[in-house]
Every structure is written in C-alpha cells, then in structure tokens.
Write a structure and sequence with these properties.
The protein folds into two domains: about 130 residues, 2-Layer Sandwich (Nucleotidyltransferase, domain 5); about 170 residues, ATPase, nucleotide binding domain (Nucleotidyltransferase, domain 5, 2-Layer Sandwich), CATH 3.30.420.40. It has eleven helices and twelve strands. It is about 40% helix and about 20% strand. It is globular. It has a five-stranded mixed sheet. A five-stranded mixed sheet has the order 10-9-8-11-12, sandwiched between helices. Strands 5-6 form a two-stranded antiparallel ribbon. By secondary structure, the chain is α/β, with parallel strands linked by helices.
Length: about 325
C-alpha cells in the first residue's frame, strides 16, 4: 500500500464508541464518500477483552480497506477515552475494554503500512465540526458531546488543544456534586454521573417512582427497560416528565458551560451527541449558562447545536489521517 497521496487517494476514519464502530472514508477535499455503523459486540466476561477489542479493530480496518476501490493513504482512529500523544498508547477507556497494555498503534502501522493517527474521538469530531460544521472560522470555542459519556474538544486560537499528554477535554469528569454517585474515574458526582445517556435514564427511572403519569411508565408495566432514545422521543411528544429530565440535564451541563465561558471567554459552545436531543438541551444549557456567567462573557458566546451528526467522529479521524499523510509525503 503506497503512502503517496494522489488525486484519487482516500483517507479512512474509524470512530469507536462503547457500543459501536463507525467507519468511513473521505476524499482529498474532505468529502465523505462512505459511512456505516456496526455493532461492537464485545462484552465484559471471560477472556482478554482488550485483546479481543484490538483484534476487532484490526479486522474491521482490514475489511474496510479491502472494500476500497481507491488507494487509502492514511488511517485515523478515534477512541472514547485518553490517548497519549507521546507514546501513542490508548491509556484509558472508561466504558470499553482496556488497551493500555497493547501497542495497538504499532500493530496498525505494521499491518497496514500507511500513516496511522490515534485520537480521542471527541477531539476528532471537534476537528470535523471546525472544518465542515457550524464552527468554521471560529477561533475560541468548545465542542461538547453528550452520549454514553460526556466529552469535550477545546479549540483556542483556531487550534485543537490537547494538553501536555493529549488528555485535555475530559469535561465529563469535572466535579459538580460531591455527594453524587461514584464515577468510572474514581471520583464522586462528576458531570458524567448526571448527564451521560445511561445516567439520564437512571435519573428518569428514579423519578418515575414518584410520577406514574409519564408515558415512560408503560415500559415498567411491560417489565421493559427504556433507553435515552425513548426519553428523547417522549420529550418531543410533550411528555412532562421527559421534558423535565431533559431540561434539568441541560441545566447541569449549563453550570459547567458557564464555568468554561467565565474562564476562557469563549465565542461559541457547540452541543453535539444525539441529534434529536440537541434542540431539547441547547435552550436549557443556554438559560443556565446565562444565569451563571458574567454577562459580558456570555454576550461574547453563542451556544448552538452541532451541524454534523453521527458521522462527525469518522470525518474528523479521516481529516487527521489526511494531515498525517501530507506530513509524511
């Protein structure tokens, strides 16, 4: 496989989440050519789940490469956790099997013979939104993605800021409730323990014990679990409890956003994650951030929904791969 970039070269992007692998390619202009999502299909239990995850990523990448008619000049992979930019190790995946003891970056380079970029998947999505989404031309802004976890990408002076080792942006582990439940990071009451998708469901289920008028009560009557998607759907249909839970989630996030606005004097905060949840969250986040920010700093800042959808992490990973290929050419 050649490293040279040609007019028909493509760049492969992979976005790993706790439940899915998203895969796609872009051309030299950044246009998304192909995109799909697959179930990850790995659960905790017997066996070396880290090795299983590594092999799954390698085999998925190999299959994706075999499907391309054009030469793949580089590969970018986004991970839902900490990626060390000095060692290229995936240092910590809070909601997936650990890859910390596996030099997966080297395995990718050896297996595929092209430049390989490993990045936090929210950082990758931030790059995509900066290049192709609502944040084009914005110098100082925050990308906030609410999903199975809560992550952020920080752009200052037009550059993605990763911190000393690449660990910047873990906004989900900012402490907001010292008496809250324990988080995967070992602390208590992190933003993620309240505002991640599983915890929105947990909080809604607890509230249902006091409010049986919600349409979500029907799930309990059928002895079924409801999901974050079900809460969002109910909210859009006017269910008062679901609307309240989404609004309260937005208020908690708004508290943290206000701190970021006050500290960094941002010009924009972009709210990403489930596309259907964005309109429900943005107004609540905006209201709470306005209440808690310096008026002058808040006046400088727009709080808006992300333009790109679930393809953002794939596009961003592929764009970062493209940059690496150009630097190596």
């Amino acid at each position: 496989m050649s490293n040279a970039i040609t007019s028909n070269s493509v760049f492969l992007g992979i976005d790993l989440s706790s439940r899915h692998i998203r895969i796609g390619t872009i051309d030299t202009t950044g246009k998304l050519l192909h995109f799909r999502r697959e179930q990850l299909g790995i659960t905790s239990g017997n066996g070396d789940t880290g090795r299983i995850l590594a092999d799954k990523l390698l085999s998925t990448t190999k299959r994706a490469l075999s499907e391309q008619d054009s030469p793949v000049a580089a590969i970018g992979v986004g991970f839902p956790g900490l990626v060390n930019h000095a060692s290229f190790r995936v240092a910590h995946l809070p909601n997936a099997p650990s890859l910390a003891e596996i030099d997966l970056h080297q395995e990718f380079k050896t297996a595929f013979g092209v430049p390989v970029v490993f990045e936090n998947n929210t950082n990758a999505a931030t790059v995509a939104e900066m290049r192709q989404g609502v944040a084009q031309g914005i110098s100082d802004w925050l990308y906030l993605r609410i999903g199975h976890g809560v992550g952020a990408g920080l752009v200052l002076d037009g550059k993605l800021r990763r911190g000393k080792s690449g660990y910047a942006g873990e906004i989900g582990h900012m402490n907001i409730d010292p008496e809250g439940i324990e988080c995967s990071c070992g602390s208590r009451g992190c933003l993620e323990t309240i505002c991640s998708a599983p915890n929105i469901v947990r909080r809604t289920r607890a509230r249902l014990e006091r409010d049986k008028t919600s349409v979500l009560s029907a799930f309990e009557k059928r002895d079924e679990d409801f999901t974050y998607d079900d809460v969002i759907k109910a909210a859009h249909e006017g269910d008062e409890l679901a609307l309240l839970m989404m609004q309260r989630t937005g208020h908690f996030i708004g508290m943290t956003v206000a701190d970021m606005i006050n500290v960094l004097n941002l010009s924009m905060v972009v709210i990403a994650g489930n596309s259907a949840a964005r309109p429900l969250l943005v107004s609540a986040i905006r209201d709470e951030a306005q209440r808690r920010s310096f008026p002058e700093a808040f006046a400088d800042c727009q709080i808006v929904a992300a333009q790109l959808s679930s393809e953002a992490g794939v596009i961003g990973a592929a764009l970062l791969a493209q940059e690496a290929a150009r630097q190596n050419s």
